[in-house]
Amino acid sequence: MDEADYAVPKTMSAMLLTGHGDVDKLHYRQDVPTPQPGPNQVLVRVTATAKNNTDRKAREGLYPTKGKEEVTSFAMGGSPTLTFPRIQGADVVGRIVAVGEGVDSARRGERGLLDFNIYADERRTINLTPDYYGHGADGGYAEYIAVPADQFHQVTNPALHDAELAAMGMCSYQTAYHMMTSANVSAGERVLVSGASGGVGTALIQLCRIVGAIPYAVSQPDKADALLALGAEAVIDRGDLPTFVERVLAATHGQPIDAVMDLVGGDMTDLFIDTMIVDMQRRSTYPRLSIAGASGGNISEIMWTRIYLYQVQIFGVSHGTREEAEQLIEWIRRGDLKPVLHAAFKLSELHMAERYFVNRGSNYLGKIVIVPDAQWAAHGARFALPTDQESRL
Predict the structure, then answer these.
(1) What is d(CA 185, CA 172) in angstroms, rounded to the nearest whole number?
(2) Phi, psi (5° rounding) for residue 204?
(3) Dihedral of the CA atoms 296, 265, 193, 330 (nearest 10)?
């Protein structure tokens, strides 16, 4: 980058979330004030931001913790931090164009990936009040973002395009890794991964292989080849619930699942438990259920006697820790993790991307990435949705 590349305009294009609701609450503006980096911050020119399901759920207010009809979002630290207008987008990739006080100016020009967490303190191994960029502070659905310098991690791999790097963002991969560390998943263990075709699911499959665990994917049959190529030991059709446990055990040759990574919830939760407690004498560890999503329903009916008599350990997971984020960055830098990028959309087309995400069909695998219009030719066009899929937009 030469000096002209560091020029920062006074205003920028951004997508503003103006309240809880449908996509009509997202407004594309081209006159939003460009943020300035504060002390120990860097200003990043955004080139790609991965879309996560939490964007939709936060927009629609689907994070109740008291009443199931509650319309709300994260408030783990007490007071709600999602205020309007807000720029969403957590998994941000771009290049540093300016630095705040206390940051070495030599960092200008670095390409990096944001650790999306807004940490409450400096602790490295615990994160009890999770919040994130795109929720408690403005995120990456814009041309520029100001973030902590120590959370913008340089990744130079020339083989990784910016959109691909965004697809490996912390929101999915750190959630996946924290699901595994919470449940103490270890080498040789059989791990059942629900929602395996999404961002967290594909991350879980890869991370299991990195630590030596054996992932069994729950998904649709027409995604089996892609999930097997990614590292799944077998793919179990999520349909036909009465035979689900039988089919899982057939895939494991009768061995119980050691740990379940549950992104579905609803009616599936009890069946997931069944795959772990089928034969306790064959087990060498406690059954573990790690939960980080409820795409199949926010309410599950479970007999508590099954939980405590079979000693099922349950772990609720939202965000991970600084230490886990740094480990993931190291794996990305080494090329141990591979991007699973489905398609890119222009920032001005975010409404379209949101509808596509909700109505995605059987060909959907991996992540959608949002690219600022000014960066589209360089960082988005090659990953645009194929023409034969545009009819669904």
Answers:
(1) 18
(2) -60, -40
(3) 100
Number of residues that make up the chain:
393
Contact 357, 389 (CB under 8 A): no
CB 165 within 8 Å of CB 339: yes
The encoded tokens of residue 245 equal 């446990």
Which residues are registered as beta bridge partners of 17? Answer: 26, 86
Cβ burial, residue 359 (10 Å; 0-12/13-18/19+): exposed
Task: Return the amino acid letter for 178.
Answer: H
Q: What is the pTM (predicted TM-score) of this model?
A: 0.93
Give the other-Cβ count within 10 Å of 328's Cβ.
Answer: 26
Q: Mind listing the pLDDT tens digit for each residue in 16-50? A: 999 999 999 999 999 999 999 999 999 999 999 99
Compute φ and ψ for 178, nearest 5 degrees. Answer: -70, -30
5-14, 53-62, 258-267, 319-328 — which is least confidently predicted? 53-62
Domains and CATH numbers, the chain: 3-168+339-392 (3.90.180.10), 175-316 (3.40.50.720)
For the record, the structure tokens of 65 come out as 């913790």
